[in-house]
Design goal:
Strand content: 15-25%
Structural class: alpha/beta
Bound molecules: flavin-adenine dinucleotide
Radius of gyration: 23 Å
Helix content: 25-40%
Number of strands: 19
Shape: globular
């Protein structure tokens, strides 16, 4: 089957849905998304969205805060665009049905988060993303110009260059992954369809699954970045992966984040033997910034060879704990941990990918016809470290900007017929009879990244990781060509490419800056205030921002 459309959007988080709604005003939009339409990082966002809406706030202050967090690597023009255009995007989101918390005067309730010099974060209790996703998915489903293919996974971008033509992206090959329903008479379909578009928009989100511990849901496997890299696009700043300091550590718990507010209310980080340790790392102790706390935990875990540390709030009255942290109390109880009497085992966890597919100020990548928005993109907004609540904002702003830019081009783009490209070739591939290869390699990759390319790095650890990743890639390649594609295998292939990119960028940055910390280059260098760029076939290099 071949599907043709004006705009092909890969992913249905805040960025993809925002783009789709705007673009649907001037063209036909097709959204392809890996699982259910609302499954995304967006859905799990807790804190909120940063935008200058308070009386005492200014765009200048928001820009300044963003630049400070980014440790000299933010592209100032992008910070300015997001700060100035953010408020309008929030009003648009409200018009699209998102209901944010209000204060007693009936105005938007704005909270203040770490790194922000003013109250500027709009939110919906501690579940902002769920409300944003709900509102946008509802709108998209009701729009006559938008089709959604859920449980469909993009495998690879289609560029005419693959068939001897110019280096232009014209769509994607997509796996129909509806396992629960019968498709074409088979229980599990391996059907791959061709989607052709005037413009293809990557909105595939982050890649937290590259690390053993992550706050991200299972869909976050860096597919967009990997597909773009294979297609020859420029990827930048992948060394800057943000870790959240405290995620619940329990064999059965998946991705449960313990909010920083728990430390704000007196929670103390301790070693498994009960010793408090933050005092040795920062005078602000447990209230030090996120990246310092994450590094301190990592240091202590490596020093004593422990799998976790403890976060202790038992010295507060049980009524206080239950009132302030009802969700955490209830969730931990499910795993047999009563936080009013027991400390919580925690580990830092991969949270946000600051790098991604490099774009211009409208979301255009280095490949004609290919656009990237949201967490999978690198616009330059976050620099070496993301300011809290700036990521949903970036998705809104760039989703809108990309759609607006394309509105001016679509009539001309429609003049050319859709190209004639071959169907996906199965060759001699057969169904897999050894899923264990995929499961084993997933585990090995995530452990390798966690142990060698995590919060604190070194040249030796990066070299070790590079060797292992290369071996895994050989195995995955062999497996890939022999077997019919499955989502699990495709995700493994993609996440291994993301690992290669993180290691490549980290190896090229000979300093410690923002989220990239290495014991071999502990200082920050003025000469290295550049982006790290990777492109297939070209060694990683630094480029002026
Ligand atoms: C626990 C948590 C809390 C957070 N809190 C905040 C916060 O308070 N404020 C803030 O600003 N940010 C927060 N973030 C970050 C923020 O949620 C994300 O950066 C943002 O939602 C990314 O939006 P997106 O549209 O780029 O991607 P996503 O929302 O991740 O959407 C990506 C979409 O692409 C789909 N997809 C992926 N690969 C493929 C493929 N191959 N084919 C088809 N579809 C594909 C996915 O299924 C998904 O639908 C948080 C993140 C997490 C995990």
């Amino acid at each position: 089957m071949t599907v043709t459309t004006d705009y092909l959007v890969l992913g249905s988080g805040v960025a993809g849905l925002t783009f789709a709604l705007d673009a649907a005003e001037h063209g036909e939009v097709t959204i392809v998304t890996k699982r259910a339409a609302d499954e995304s990082n967006t859905r799990y966002a807790q804190g909120g969205i940063a935008a200058v809406l308070g009386k005492d706030d200014t765009p200048e202050a928001h820009i300044r805060d963003t630049l400070i967090a980014g440790a000299g690597l933010c592209h100032e023009v992008v910070a300015e665009i997001c700060a100035r255009e953010g408020p309008e995007r929030i009003h648009e989101l409200i018009a699209r049905g998102a209901v944010f918390d209000k204060d007693e005067r009936g105005e938007l309730s704005l909270t203040r988060e770490g790194g922000h010099s003013a109250r500027r974060v709009v939110h919906v209790a501690d579940a902002t993303g769920a409300e944003v996703e709900r509102a946008l998915v509802e709108r998209v489903k009701a729009h006559p110009n938008i089709r959604i293919f859920d449980h469909h996974m993009a495998i690879d971008l289609i560029t005419l260059g693959q068939f001897g033509g110019p280096d232009t992206c014209v769509g994607a090959y997509v796996l129909d992954d509806r396992t629960s329903r019968e498709v074409a008479g088979t229980q599990k379909s391996h059907r791959v369809e061709t989607f052709l578009a005037r413009a293809t928009v990557l909105a595939t989100g982050g890649a937290g699954k590259v690390y053993l511990y992550t706050t991200n849901p299972d869909v976050a496997t860096g597919d967009g970045v990997a597909m773009a890299y294979r297609a020859g696009a420029e990827i930048a700043n992948m060394e800057f992966y943000q870790f959240h300091p405290t995620c619940l550590y329990h064999p059965e718990a998946k991705n449960f984040l313990i909010t920083e507010a728990l430390r704000g209310e007196g929670g103390i980080l301790r070693l498994p033997d009960g010793t408090a340790f933050m005092e040795q790392h920062d005078p602000r102790k447990d209230l030090a910034p996120r990246d310092i706390v994450a590094r301190a935990i990592d240091f202590e875990m490596k020093r004593i060879g422990s799998e976790y540390v403890l976060l202790d709030i038992t010295h507060k009255p049980p009524s206080f704990i239950k009132e302030h942290f009802p969700t955490i109390h209830a969730e931990c109880l499910k795993f047999g941990i009563d936080i009013t009497t027991q400390p919580i085992p925690v580990v830092p966890a991969a949270h946000y990918m600051c790098g991604g597919v490099s774009t211009d100020l409208h979301g255009r990548t280095s490949i004609p016809g290919l656009w990237a928005i949201g967490e999978c993109s690198f616009t330059g907004l976050h620099g070496a470290n993301r300011l809290a609540s700036n990521s949903l904002l970036e998705g809104l702003v760039f989703g809108h900007r990309a759609a607006k830019k394309l509105a001016g081009q679509i009539t001309e783009l429609r003049q050319a017929p859709y190209p004639d490209v071959p169907d996906w070739r199965v060759g001699n591939a057969v169904p897999s009879d050894e899923e264990v290869v995929v499961a084993h390699n997933w585990d090995e990759l995530r452990r390798t990244m966690w142990n060698y390319v995590g919060i604190v790095r070194s040249n030796a650890r990066l070299r070790r990781a590079a060797r292992r990743i290369s071996l895994l890639q050989d195995e995955i390649r062999e497996y890939y060509w022999k077997h019919l594609v499955t989502r699990d295998m495709l995700e493994l292939r993609n996440i291994t490419t993301v690992a290669e990119l993180i290691v490549g960028c980290a190896s090229a940055r000979h300093e410690s800056r923002g989220l990239h910390s290495t014991i071999d280059y502990p200082g920050q260098s003025q000469d290295l205030a550049h982006d790290t760029v990777m492109k297939r076939g070209v060694p990683p290099h630094l480029r002026g921002k």
